[in-house]
Amino acid sequence: MTTSEQKSRTVLSLGSNLGDRLDNLQEGIDALFDAPGLDFIAISPVYETKPVGGPEQDDFLNVVIVADSSVAPQSLLERVLNIEESMDRVRDVHWGPRTLDIDIVTVNDVTSDAPELTLPHPRAHERAFVLVPWADVDPDALLPGRGRVADLLSAVAGQELRRRDDLSLQPPA
C-alpha cells in the first residue's frame, strides 16, 4: 500500500503523579495510538522525578514516546487534550498534580508560537525528565533551535530523576 501522507517525527512527553501513575501512563500511551495517524517508534524507560514548579506534590513517573505522525500538530494537540480530559486531568492549579500530562515536545522541525501550541515545547531544554529519557531512545536527537539533546543534558544534570528499571510500559498494540 502506498500513501502520500507526510510523516513527521514527533516526540511526546508523558507524566503522572496522581493515582496509579504507571497505569495512567499506559492508558495514555494506548489512547494516543488507538486513533489513526501515529506510528509507534520507541518508548523510553520510566523515570521517577521530583515536580518542577507548582505546589508541593508527589513525585512523577515520566516517559518519552517517539512516533511518526501524519496528524497535523493542532489535531494532535486536540487528541492529547481529549485523552487528558478522559483521564480526569484537572487544570485548577498551574503546574499542579495530575493524573496524566502529555506534552508535544517536537514535530519534526516545525516551529509555532501559537498560544495554544508552542513548538518545540518552550521548556523542553530545561527539563531532565524530557531530555534524559529522550536521549535514551534517540541519542542523536535534535531539539530544534537548541541543538543536540545529548549536548543539553549537562545543563539539567542537577535535577532529581531516577531511572525505574523495575517499571515498564508496553508499546501500543
Description of the molecule:
- 24% of the residues lie in helices and 28% in strands.
- It starts with 7 loop residues before the first strand and ends in a 10-residue tail after the last strand.
- The longest helix has 14 residues, at 21-34.
- The strands form three sheets. Strands 1, 2, 3, 4, 5 and 10 form a six-stranded antiparallel sheet that branches. The chain has a two-stranded antiparallel sheet with strand order 6-7. It has a two-stranded antiparallel ribbon with strand order 8-9.
- It is α+β, with helices and mostly antiparallel strands and 173 residues long.
How far is the N terminus from the C terminus? 21 Å
- What helical percentage do the residues reach? 10-25%
* Strand residues, percent: 25-35%
Mean pLDDT across the residues is: 91
Q: Which residues sit in consecutive blocks of at least 5 with pLDDT less than 50?
A: none
Rg result: 15 Å
Derived from helix and strand composition plus strand pairing, the structural class reads alpha+beta
Shape: globular
**Total helical elements:** 4
The tally of beta strands, per DSSP, is 10
Q: For the report, how would you describe the main beta sheet?
A: 6 strands, antiparallel
* Series of H and E elements: EHEEEHEEEHEEHE
